[in-house]
Amino acid sequence: MLRSRPLRALVLIVVAFASTASAQLIAYDDFNGPLVDGGGWSYDAHRPGVVELRVVDGGRGDPNDSFLRVVDDGGMTGMTQRTQAYLALVLAADRGTRWLRHWFREASVTTPGSVANLTISGIQIDSPIATAAEVKFWPMQNDLQLQCFTGAGGQVLPMGRFVLDGGWHLAELAAQGVGTDAGICALVVDGTVVATSGVDWSGRTFTQAILGEPWAADDFAGELDFDAFAVTVQAPPSVWRISVPPVVTVGQCAPLKVEMFDVLGGLRPALGTTRGTMFFNGVGELFTDSACTTAGSQFRLDAGETTVEMGLLPRVPGNKCLQVEGTDYRRVTQCLTVETPDAGSALDAGGSDGDAGVGARSGYGVGCSCGSEPAIALLLALALIRRMTMRVS
Ligand SMILES: [Ca+2]
Ligand SMILES: [Ca+2]
User: Fold this and answer.
1) Measured in angstroms, how far is the CA atom of residue 187 from the centroid of ligand 1?
2) pLDDT tens track for 307-360
3) Tell me: the pLDDT tens digits for 260-303?
4) Protein residues near ligand 1, an ion, with CB under 5 A
5) Dihedral over alpha carbons 53, 57, 60, 65 (to 10 degrees)
6) Which of 45, 47, 60, 98 is the most buried (most CB within 10 A)?
7) Ligand 2 mean position to 97 CA, how many Å?
8) Which domains are seen in the chain, by residue range?
9) Buried b vs exposed e over 261-284: b needs ≥16 C-beta within 10 Å?
10) In terms of Cα–Cα distance, which of 340, 358, 341, 339 is closest to 350?
């Protein structure tokens, strides 16, 4: 159900450089409320009545979850490109690294527009064009792109693409080395580096983060959805991770640990309150404690918490998989081997037998991401980012 709320009522949780355990969270908004006047956002609309920002309820598979929708009904026709409507968050005039992350969905495109692409989010600096790095949406190709700029205003366009499918995708934008001539901008979508570029940001400082439709052709018409926005100093949490012994035994409780990691492999705490569900495609029971005393598959992490302990009591041997799903973070699958008590080491540890098995969920039988090893190209790109982070942060 769609309902409008006054934009000033959106709540933005602004945290000024909390502990290192928080990934140095600067701001977070899940667009779920509660609604309090005077949230940390400012709202800019150059096309009032044409482009609206609304909170939409229950659209992410959870009736308690809401998200932000930009509704652009088209407005003028022609080639004019201008500011539309967006949320802005003032950033301290610091140098170094900032990450911006949000979920994005191309809800609908009525008119792609006569200009190639539009900005949906970005990190801005005190350059003549005020922009460090932006995430662009190209409705004519249904894709996301990265665009970053030198401090002098020159445009850098090496840019990769990520083709959208109408579903939700997690975009993470990094502007690293601001204030130096060795900056890096990078866009990571669903855990994959889409594009990176070196950039000269000598003498520049951050000014603000933006979200919505900050810049677009007037004749673009459509609906763009956003959720779980955050700005952090270090890479934000991105994906769940399940820790489980590679070999477990039928009838014996196996402890499980659920944590969240960033795209660089660092352990990160929850940005805000988040709920998740564990699934097991073998025969057995899940518990909400590591001693297997309280049956349950659902868990909750509050802001700043890093770890959930659960338990698995398997009943039938085989190579099986666990999966965690939850809002705001990418799901993960981890496989294990269930042995009979006297099986010894006859079975291989871990891995998938490719069998969706009893209790398999839709989309779960496509094979395990056992080990979850990223591609070499991703490792190289992330190593470069990490090296630059160490130099300039
Ligand atoms: Ca939400
Ligand atoms: Ca428009």
Assistant:
1) 22
2) 999 999 999 999 999 999 987 899 999 999 999 997 654 443 333 333 333 232
3) 999 999 999 999 888 899 999 999 999 999 999 999 999 999 98
4) 30-32, 65, 67, 227
5) 110
6) 98
7) 32
8) 2-236 (2.60.120.560), 239-339 (2.60.40.10)
9) bbbbeeebbbbbebebebbbbbbb
10) 339
